[in-house]
Amino acid sequence: MRFLRTDIRQPLAFISAGHLHSRRSWTHSRRVIDSFEIIIGVKGTQYIQQQNDRFEVGPGNALLILPGETHFGYQPSEGELTFYWVHFLCPGNAIICKEEEWLEDRIQRESEGQHAVKNEYAYLPLFFRCGHPDKIDILFHQLQHLANSKLIHHSALHYRMTSLFLELAEQADSGHATGALIPPDPLVAEIVEWIRIHTAEPLTASIIADKYGYNRDYLSRQFKRFLGRNLHEYILAQKLFKAKSLLAGTNRTVKQIAHDVGIPDEKYFIRLFRKHEHLTPTGYRNAYYLKHMNVE
């Protein structure tokens, strides 16, 4: 696996971003570009070849396209397809390196621990699976909103682009380091996946404890240990992540979104959202509604 290593003492240079949605089978055109591009799968699978390497970019997958390298769709997608794309340039002397260099750098940082010097570089693999695609979804919508706004300070786009890049780098680094994008405890990992699938249901810590036959307080301690938040906090966070994604990326009403995340009481949902996000759901949507979408 190849990695992009770039200097992060300066922001990346944002060029453009968009959101492609095809209602039918779609194939990426053959081309060579003079910038970096990140493609993030949302729905369906896109089949892309870069030089001699083939990638299947499905939901939650991220692919880095390199400048000067030929890339194209080697087969059409099957049915509906949605993905995000963003073009950018790196400051200074960005290089493409092998996984061994990334691993050596990571081992050195871990050995230095809290005494490690400030890291001046970030690494991004050419292809990886996002550990928290909801976070990427929100950051991408924020970037698109800025890109389609009349800005006084255009540099805000470059810093927002850098924020998205660093979040992707963090998620990629975590996934490569553990060998899997799941918590190290099998029980916690299983419950995390179950919560993801059942986010639309009215979940509570007690319901999950009963389902898995464990004491609620024990499960909460395990979640706190491995994920940094107790079970109740984790459930709420997942519901709010899903709600923010739907607010930014769909035209569904607040009432419908509340139902989509398993909170049927719209007024309670609004109070909960405002408490944790410091904005009403409508306020959040209005803050990030501008976007560039390709529909084919």
From TrEMBL:
Q: Which residues form the HTH araC/xylS-type domain?
A: 189-287
| Gene3D superfamilies given in the database record | Homeodomain-like, Regulatory protein AraC
Transcription regulation found in the keyword field: yes
The entry lists its GO molecular-function terms as: DNA-binding transcription factor activity; sequence-specific DNA binding
Going by the UniProt record, its keywords in alphabetical order are:
DNA-binding, Transcription, Transcription regulation
Superkingdom: Bacteria
Q: What is this protein called?
A: AraC-like DNA-binding protein
Q: Which organism is it from?
A: Paenibacillus endophyticus
Lineage runs: Bacteria, Bacillati, Bacillota, Bacilli, Bacillales
